[in-house]
């Protein structure tokens, strides 16, 4: 049963309204014989001694575009599972719960420390695109229990469970974590973190960040492998997006158009799925930047259309905000408005590494090297093992180049090349940095690579279409000419 307290519309023998729909969704999510209440109802019955309430936190209910705070209810003396059995997420995104960590030895001081780590992990994970993270309130409902990840998977419909152990001994802390596949119970990844007792809050933040850094790529890689195994006729919009991103960021001419095909299919299958539109905008911008566009004006207009469509579907999505900002800089050189969108993206999700990376991009284009380096550094801290980290490394190269630190610019540019040698904007920055540093032979070798990838490249066309400000282009173009790129 699902119970909600709200105004309804009565017509003849029927009742209508959003409140009725919410009650129906709660009922569909309750376990057999169970009762789920909204927060409004819970406030009215909280003082009833005959009833026992369990705060389930914010739940994702089928066909609801917002999270709903829910409570489980049982009569006094009845044993109730900590959470109701929930349906699987309808949009097929990977979902994860961070279970309460075990304490060795069990102490109140260690308990709050462990809860702080969990809260930090949940906060950072919530900023990862296409990952649904179960709320802290639901996680803590499992405190003090021996939990089988498979049971949690059945109850919550989650795909992954993160568990851990906190050990304290002789002034040191050790934290073990395990990421499990909740459908099979199979271990996906295990890690250990050590530290000295000292600033507990700093240690909480560090451990939370390091744990997410380790598990996020594992989840993404496993999800891509899962999507690749699916037959074509069973792919969801999310599966199609995963396949598209895998091809998009390879930047291989022979597979680049296939990425667009997957994105178009995702948009056709689920017209309300915003991420497909955001990354379609990115596809068009890369097509221009790589020199592969046959009509850059058409691609720029498509990038604008797709970026706007993504925001229409979710105006608060940090990735949609960030890519919209990138589009404004890249296609219009509207830096002020772009930075406004990028700042909003970071405010919406301070742990969204893409927002920090793209903010660094625009900062570099307007010669704000300090901000460019700071924001790209933050992005690397959030996701250093990301398979698309080569773009963030390129932004670090660009930021150091703007600052005149050419050694660092070269080092980061070469690192980005090692991870993806196809990104022509990185090769241009690297060539210019090598010229500024005085290594003309190495710069000319990079210029030859650029022309191999973009045979029609010319400095005149580049300067006309580049998203860089005139202040940056003033020194950048002569250096590219010195590297051997044609006018």
Number of domains: 3
- Structural class by sheet pairing and helices: alpha/beta
Q: Into which percent range does the helicity of residues fall?
A: 55-70%
CATH fold description of the largest domain: Serine Threonine Protein Phosphatase 5, Tetratricopeptide repeat
What Rg is obtained from the alpha carbons, in whole angstroms? 25 Å
InterPro entries: A/G_cyclase, Nucleotide_cyclase, O-mannosyl-transferase_TMTC, TPR-like_helical_dom_sf
Domain Guanylate cyclase: 1-27
GO molecular function: adenylate cyclase activity
Protein name: Guanylate cyclase domain-containing protein
Describe this structure in words.
With 487 residues, the chain is of the alpha/beta class. It has 3 domains: 2-75, 2-Layer Sandwich (Alpha-Beta Plaits); 95-229, Rossmann fold; 232-482, Serine Threonine Protein Phosphatase 5, Tetratricopeptide repeat. Helices cover 57% and strands 14% of the residues. The protein is built from 20 helices and 12 strands. It has helices spanning 18-29, 39-45, 108-125, 136-140, 149-156, 200-229, 237-248, 253-269, 274-289, 296-313, 318-332, 335-348, 353-365, 369-382, 389-403, 406-419, 424-437, 440-453, 459-465, 470-482; strands at residues 2-3, 9-11, 14-16, 35-38, 51-60, 67-75, 95-98, 102-104, 132-133, 160-169, 172-181, 187-196. Strands 7, 8, 9, 10, 11 and 12 form a 6-stranded mixed beta sheet that branches. Strands 1-4-6-5 form a 4-stranded mixed beta sheet. Helix 13 runs antiparallel to helix 14 (369-382) and helix 13 (353-365) packs parallel to helix 15. The chain is globular, with a radius of gyration of 25 Å. It starts with a strand and ends in a 5-residue tail after the last helix.
């Amino acid at each position: 049963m699902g119970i909600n307290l709200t105004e309804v519309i009565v017509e003849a023998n029927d009742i209508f309204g959003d409140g009725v729909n919410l009650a129906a969704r709660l009922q569909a999510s309750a376990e057999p014989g169970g009762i789920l209440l909204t927060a409004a109802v819970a406030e009215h019955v909280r003082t009833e001694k005959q009833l026992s309430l369990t705060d389930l936190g914010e739940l994702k209910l089928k066909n609801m575009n917002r999270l709903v705070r829910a409570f489980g209810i049982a009569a006094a003396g009845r044993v109730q599972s900590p959470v109701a059995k929930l349906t699987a997420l309808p949009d097929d995104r990977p979902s994860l719960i961070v279970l309460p960590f075990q304490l060795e030895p069990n102490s109140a001081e260690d308990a709050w420390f462990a809860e702080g780590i969990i809260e930090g992990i949940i906060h950072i994970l919530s900023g990862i695109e296409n990952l649904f993270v179960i709320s802290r309130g639901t996680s803590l409902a499992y405190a003090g229990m021996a939990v089988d990840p498979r049971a949690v998977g059945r109850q919550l419909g989650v795909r992954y469970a993160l568990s851990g152990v906190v050990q304290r001994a002789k002034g040191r802390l050790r934290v073990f974590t395990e990421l499990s596949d909740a459908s099979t119970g199979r271990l996906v990844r295990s890690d250990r973190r050590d530290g000295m007792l000292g600033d507990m809050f700093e240690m909480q933040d560090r451990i939370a960040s390091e744990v997410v850094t380790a598990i996020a790529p594992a989840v993404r890689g496993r999800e891509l492998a899962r999507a690749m195994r699916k037959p074509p006729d069973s792919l969801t919009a999310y599966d199609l997006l995963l396949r598209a991103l895998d091809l998009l960021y390879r930047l291989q001419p022979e597979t680049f158009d296939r990425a667009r095909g997957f994105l178009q299919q995702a948009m056709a299958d689920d017209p309300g799925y915003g991420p497909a539109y955001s990354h379609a905008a990115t596809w068009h911008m890369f097509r221009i930047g790589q020199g592969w566009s046959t009509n850059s004006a058409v691609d720029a207009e498509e990038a604008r259309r797709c970026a706007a469509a993504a925001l229409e579907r979710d105006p608060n999505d940090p990735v949609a905000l960030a890519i919209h900002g990138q589009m404004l800089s890249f296609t219009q050189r509207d830096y002020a408005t772009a930075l406004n969108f990028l700042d909003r993206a970071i405010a919406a999700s301070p742990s969204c590494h893409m927002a920090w990376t793209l903010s660094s991009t625009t900062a570099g284009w307007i010669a704000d090297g300090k901000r460019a380096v700071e924001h790209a550094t933050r992005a690397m801290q959030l996701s250093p093992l990301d398979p698309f980290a080569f773009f963030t490394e390129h932004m670090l190269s660009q930021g150091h180049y703007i600052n005149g630190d050419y050694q660092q610019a070269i080092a980061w540019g070469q690192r980005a090349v090692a991870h993806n040698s196809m990104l022509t904007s990185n090769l241009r920055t690297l060539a210019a940095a090598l010229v500024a540093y005085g290594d003309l032979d190495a710069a000319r070798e990079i210029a030859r690579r650029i022309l191999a990838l973009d045979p029609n490249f010319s400095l005149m066309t580049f300067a006309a279409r580049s998203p860089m400000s005139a202040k940056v282009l003033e020194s950048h173009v002569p250096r590219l000419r010195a590297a051997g790129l044609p006018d």
